[in-house]
Design goal:
heterotrimer; A mainly alpha (275); B alpha+beta (354); C mainly alpha (304); A: 275 residues; 13 helices; B: six-stranded mixed beta sheet; 9 helices
């Protein structure tokens, strides 16, 4: 990479100044409050808050449902990406555009729509109810909502990689005698795997923080279907700021770790493909 | 194993890539498909491999109809211009791939695979690099891996698509020689596609020259070079000068001069084109006979054993190229601006296509 | 450690030639069907349901819900928020992209990671941090109270929270784009005597216009649709601090389902318009890249 000497292109000072000021005031300062507020608690108090049964249950709900949803999205996301990239069918462009719907739709709208859809008398719910399968106000409902939210992350991360696959490599495998399935598992999949992993991580990261689309369908029963974001709100409404920040801190740490992991994955993928 | 191609036709939309191609490749031969871009040579190769279906026509491998056979079953080895190595596998695993994907029943044991792969890597002189990834190899090395990989499954036919096209000149020359030696050792029927005439003429047992979806000529390198069958072949191989003129009773009249054209003894007043190779010209300080053309030396490029001269014909002003040996250039002291008389030897006259 | 662009031009047309190495027809059909059924179930059904429910009680009820004063003031507030947040983040995004992509300095990667932070933070936490800063018991709580300035449970708080949440959008779009474009054109302009602003407006801006537009569309969509963060800071005061998404929630919690979905349908229409604009911009982007000299558009495989 060429070294850009600052003196040639103008605007370094101004742009860096704006950027740093903005980031400090809008991002770093507010986020810092989480850490300082938590510091108000003693170590023991912090631990007690964070290991409170209700809190732990909410962690389990959030992380558990997010994990399942991300896994489902990984499988189906790959399928959707594959079909969109490789096959032709009427309305393909339209379908491709719709995949971004969860990105564009306000989460509250998604929330009420999904709740109504899966309610016992809802369009889908009424078919599941006779089988005793309850979606609304259960853990399953939360997962369904998180699947909705996370799908575009996997599809959009995998699509470019599939698009860039060289035809010749698959032809080479075929000429060497590989059956289609073998070519997929031995040649195509390993190439797509890193992107798939990144997509999974992105979907998971989004899911654990999700509020709007989940809070309607979950029923918010403490210990059973209460998600962490809601718990934080509850504590805030009770002016238990310290408790709220303690719970939030755990979430933040998890999110940052995920962010780091995702960036590392993307960096490694870039290195491998550049070589 | 021999290849018989009969009446192959292939179009892409309106574009006719192959127009009724028939070709025989005897077993064990190394054949070059030579031609400019768009001539159909890669399409032909891919159809033989089974990577594209033909619209019409048949392909037989040693008498057996393979036209409908999927590529997997044809037992052809294919080497791509850009190698198509499996980036996430080591060199060893790349070469072993074809053996690993065989059905359980016929799959060789791990030990056998190891032996075959290392043997091939030794053949292509890359055994020390077995554990490396393709990204760590040079272009020439990658192509050798691709070749080893294709040979690992003991193909009946080896097909190479511009195998050295992506490499620089020096590496290309080395690999050319190397491919020839490999063929002599392994003796698989091989067909390779190239647009580089030097490559085709140097390496192959037989050259098939293609143009616009048709075969212009097929023969040994000597045949196609010395006895080109069509104007296209003449112009495509080696440097040539063209003279347009009228053919009449064994002579072709080009401007102020007449050239001998004995094969056209019976012709009467036909439009024709005379082809003269750039080294088939004699330059003399004075007119020698009626077929000499007066010209002035306009440009001299004297590097290497052959001197290239650009001559401007006095009659008509057009430019012709002459390549003469260094010694002759020096002895005749031909410099810029000198007047010379050009006598073509070995003229080939073709009728002007109407 | 560059950020990846959010936008990815929708897939190019699949190769026109049916490859001899593809899956069998049966497999293709099965996979396509499964994928489409999954998408219909996951994405299409909720979409259709919004409109069905909104119109369930007939058109008059629909209009009434939308023209209701609280709904209208919620709409006004939403538009106000977007009109403040988007330009602010535009300036930030452009400034950040400029200094990151045109210059080399230590800590650049750190800066990029910081820009990504709001993405990693849950919306609820995004709202919470401003409560911690400006709420009654927050850092500046006492000071604000003394000066009778309301931020939390008032419009400024909503603006701040929304700005935080949407901060990365434009920057993340521009950074990879401008990195790819390099600095040569700007350097050429400078050599020819152009000033800084001239260079930016005449050389850089035309090159990034589609990426910029894309980022603006996404930023706007998120700014109007943000729920979690706004929920925390707004106080849910009808007619004053309710945005459209919050209004949807209030109506729904009051069992006014048809009205709730009616308002939701407006937001959904906005989402569909966003998707449409996105596709348009992506199409344009592809056009521009294809025409640019020196770019490598994949040629159709024809005879060689």
């Amino acid at each position: 990479m060429r070294h850009k000497s600052r003196s040639v292109l103008p605007g370094f000072g101004l742009s860096l100044g704006i950027t740093c000021t903005y980031l400090s005031l809008m991002v770093l300062l507010p986020l810092a409050t989480v850490f300082t507020r938590t510091a108000d608690l003693t170590g023991a108090a912090f631990w007690a808050t964070v290991t409170d049964p209700r809190v732990v249950a909410s962690y389990r709900v959030t992380f558990g449902a997010s994990l399942v949803a991300a896994l489902v999205n990984t499988v189906f996301g790959l399928l959707v990406a594959w079909v969109l990239v490789r096959y032709r069918f009427p309305g393909r462009r339209l379908v491709d555009a719709i995949v971004d719907l969860p990105f564009a739709l306000p989460t509250a709208v998604a929330g009420i729509a999904l709740t109504t859809l899966y309610a016992p008398n809802g369009w889908v719910g009424k078919y599941l109810d006779p089988f005793g399968v309850k979606v609304s106000y259960t853990w399953l409902g939360i997962t369904v909502a998180l699947i909705f939210i996370g799908l575009p992350f996997v599809v959009r991360t995998v699509q470019p990689v599939l698009d860039d696959l060289e035809v010749e490599v698959e032809e080479a495998a075929a000429s060497l005698g590989a059956r289609r399935w073998q070519t997929f598992t031995r040649v195509v999949f390993p190439t797509v795997a890193p992107a798939l992993l990144t997509g999974f991580a992105l979907a998971f990261a989004r899911a654990i923080g999700e509020y709007g689309s989940v809070v309607f369908i979950s029923g918010n029963m403490p210990m059973k279907t209460e998600i962490v974001p809601l718990l934080i709100i509850t504590k805030l409404e009770q002016y238990d700021y310290a408790g709220a920040t303690a719970v939030a801190l755990v979430m933040l740490v998890a999110s940052f770790v995920l962010l780091l992991a995702i960036n590392l994955l993307q960096w490694a993928a870039r290195r491998r493909s550049a070589a | 194993m021999s290849i018989e191609v009969r009446n192959l036709r292939k179009s892409f939309g309106d574009f006719v890539a192959l127009d009724n191609i028939s070709l025989d490749v005897p077993g064990g031969e190394l054949v070059a498909l030579l031609g400019p871009s768009g001539s159909g040579k890669t399409t032909l190769l891919r159809i033989i491999a089974g990577l594209e279906p033909a619209d019409q026509g048949t392909i037989h491998f040693h008498g057996e109809d393979a036209t409908r056979q999927p590529v997997r079953e044809r037992q052809v080895g294919f080497v791509f211009q850009h190698y198509a190595l499996f980036r996430h596998m080591s060199v060893f695993e790349n070469v072993a791939f074809g053996l690993r994907v065989k059905p359980r029943a016929v799959r060789p044991s791990e030990a056998e695979i190891r032996e075959t792969v290392m043997g091939l890597l030794h053949l292509v002189q890359l055994d020390v690099l077995a554990k490396r990834r393709p990204s760590e190899l040079s272009g020439g090395q990658r192509q050798r891996v691709a070749l080893a990989r294709a040979l690992a499954v003991k193909p009946k036919v080896l097909l190479l698509d511009e195998p050295f096209g992506a490499l620089d000149a020096k590496v290309r020359k080395e690999l050319r020689r190397w491919l020839r030696r490999l063929h002599e050792e392994v003796h698989v029927t091989s067909v390779f596609v190239t647009h580089d005439q030097e490559e085709a003429l140097e390496v192959s047992d037989r050259v098939v020259i293609m143009n616009e979806g048709r075969i212009e000529q097929s023969g040994t390198p000597e045949e196609v070079y010395e006895r080109p069958a069509t104007p296209f072949v003449y112009g495509f191989l080696g440097d040539v000068n063209l003279f347009h003129g009228r053919i009449h009773e064994g002579r072709v009249n080009i401007g102020a001069s007449d050239l001998e054209a004995p094969e056209w003894a019976g012709a009467s007043d036909q439009a024709g084109v005379a082809y003269v190779r750039t080294y088939d010209v004699e330059l003399a300080p004075a007119r020698s006979d009626a077929s000499s053309l007066e010209a002035v030396v306009r440009h001299v490029r004297a590097f290497g054993p052959v001197v290239r001269l650009e001559l401007e014909l006095v009659d008509g002003g057009r430019t012709i190229d002459a390549h003469i040996p260094r010694a002759q250039f020096d002895s005749q002291a031909l410099g810029k601006g000198r007047r010379v008389y050009v006598s073509p030897t070995n003229v080939r006259v073709f009728a002007q296509p109407s | 450690m560059a950020t990846t662009a959010l936008s990815r031009p929708a897939t190019t047309a699949p190769r026109a030639i049916i490859r001899a190495t593809g899956e069998s027809r049966a497999v293709r059909w099965t996979l396509t069907t499964i994928a489409l059924v999954f998408l219909a179930l996951t994405l299409l059904l909720p979409l259709v349901l919004v409109f069905a429910q909104a119109l369930a009680k007939g058109l008059p009820t629909y209009w009434a819900a939308i023209k209701e004063p609280d709904a209208l003031s919620a709409a006004k507030l939403t538009l106000l928020i977007a009109s403040i947040v988007v330009p602010v983040n535009l300036v930030f995004g452009v400034a950040a992209a400029w200094c990151i992509t045109k210059f080399d300095f230590p800590g650049k990667n750190l800066l990029i990671t910081l820009i990504d932070l709001p993405f990693a933070v849950s919306p609820v936490i995004s709202g919470m941090i401003f409560v911690l800063l400006f709420g009654a018991h927050g850092w500046f709580g006492a000071w604000l109270l003394a000066h009778d300035i309301k931020i939390i449970f008032a419009v400024p708080g909503i603006v701040l929270a929304t700005t935080f949440v949407t901060a990365p959008f434009i920057a993340r779009e521009l950074i990879p784009l401008m990195q790819e474009q390099g600095t040569e054109e700007e350097e050429a302009a400078i050599v020819l005597g152009a000033g800084g602003w001239q260079t930016f407006f005449r050389v850089t801006l035309p090159n990034i216009k589609w990426g910029l537009l894309y980022g603006l569309i996404l930023c706007n969509a998120r700014a109007m649709g943000e729920f979690g963060a706004v929920s925390v800071v707004s106080g849910h005061i009808r007619g004053e601090t309710n945005t459209l998404p919050l209004h949807v929630e209030i109506l729904y919690n009051e069992y006014a389902f048809a009205a709730s979905f009616a308002v939701a349908s407006v937001l959904t229409l906005l989402a569909l318009v966003t998707l449409g604009l996105k596709s348009l911009v992506e199409w344009q982007q592809r056009h521009v890249t294809a025409e640019r000299p020196g770019t490598d558009s994949t040629p159709e495989r024809i005879a060689a």
